[in-house]
Design brief:
- By secondary structure, the protein is an all-alpha fold.
- It has helices at residues 2-7, 9-50, 85-89, 104-123, 127-149, 154-167, 176-201, 208-221, 226-247, 259-284.
């Protein structure tokens, strides 16, 4: 099978796209459940510090209980959980009670599938494509979790950082030295901005999760890509912030998560970073 995938780039791209669709369905679960799992753990830790009994909860993890309709409790069967197809077949409604199902679920599945296929096509059969796909999956999960909760879970960012260093042991994307410096520079750059902003304004401009995310991005893409990632994410974030203030009348005091824009800048750099930098340097010369 591996020989067949290596010999046929189109089949490899298609296979990665299908796997991406299936993983996208699982990412929907991660995006919804992981923050709730973290909240339960915080309550248990607070109870432990106070010396009281932790609140009683039913079993809740990424695998249990089975996915169900939040309105009627209908358990989602395997045939109702096929990425995109089930949503179209059910016409975006619960099979039992007819409650509308958010369009975001098939959108995340589609984005994950398309980006997975794009990475397979761009990098070709090999470790680079597999690593890039894993990086993409993590970026998608972090993006939507941050949008929903303004949290970037350590359970994703920290393993992603170490995995980036491991992947680059053999210079998969960048030499290991560049990856290590990237991890350090990624963290310290936003850490410095955070403290300078806090000293000047007395307010927190971003969360510590943003430091860890940029450190992970630096570990994957190397320190030379960090300025481009920050520039792209800042531009996208500024545009999105202006649009939100205009069309949703969202005030300046309302915090806007920066993680999704860092992730977006990282994905652009993953595919086109070298081309952008080369064209920029050619223009300067």
């Amino acid at each position: 099978m591996l020989a067949l995938l290596q010999a046929d780039p189109a089949l490899f791209t298609f296979s990665c796209g299908i796997v991406g669709l299936l993983v996208g369905s699982f990412l929907n679960v991660v995006i919804y459940r992981l923050p709730k799992i973290m909240e339960r753990e915080w309550h248990e830790q607070c109870a432990s510090l106070q010396g009281v009994s932790p609140p009683e909860h039913t079993s809740f993890s990424l695998s249990k209980p089975r996915s169900a309709c939040p309105s009627c409790g209908h358990k989602i069967s395997a045939t109702e959980n096929i990425p995109i197809i089930s949503y179209l077949w059910l016409r975006g409604k619960c099979k039992s009670c007819g409650t509308h199902i958010s369009l975001r679920y098939p959108v995340i599945e589609a984005i994950t599938g398309l980006l997975s296929a794009a990475a397979a096509s761009y990098f070709g059969f090999g470790i680079s494509a597999i690593a890039a796909i894993i990086f993409i999956w993590a970026m998608i999960a972090l993006t939507f979790i941050d949008f929903d909760t303004q949290l970037l879970p350590d359970s994703i960012t920290l393993p992603l950082l170490w995995l980036g260093l491991f992947v680059n042991l053999q210079s998969t994307f960048v030499p290991l030295q560049s990856a290590v410096i990237g991890a350090i520079a990624g963290y310290l750059s936003l850490w410095t901005v955070y403290w300078l902003f806090k000293l000047v304004t007395g307010k927190e401009g971003m969360g510590f999760g943003d430091f860890k995310l940029l450190a992970a991005i630096g570990a994957w893409l190397g320190w030379t890509m960090l300025p481009l990632v920050i520039l792209l994410s800042s531009a996208v974030g500024a545009i999105a912030g202006i649009i939100l203030m205009i069309f949703t009348k969202q005030g300046r005091s309302i915090p806007i998560p920066f993680g999704p824009y860092l992730a977006g800048g990282a994905l652009i750099a993953l595919f086109w970073g070298q081309t952008i930098l080369q064209n920029y340097l050619a223009t300067l010369s």
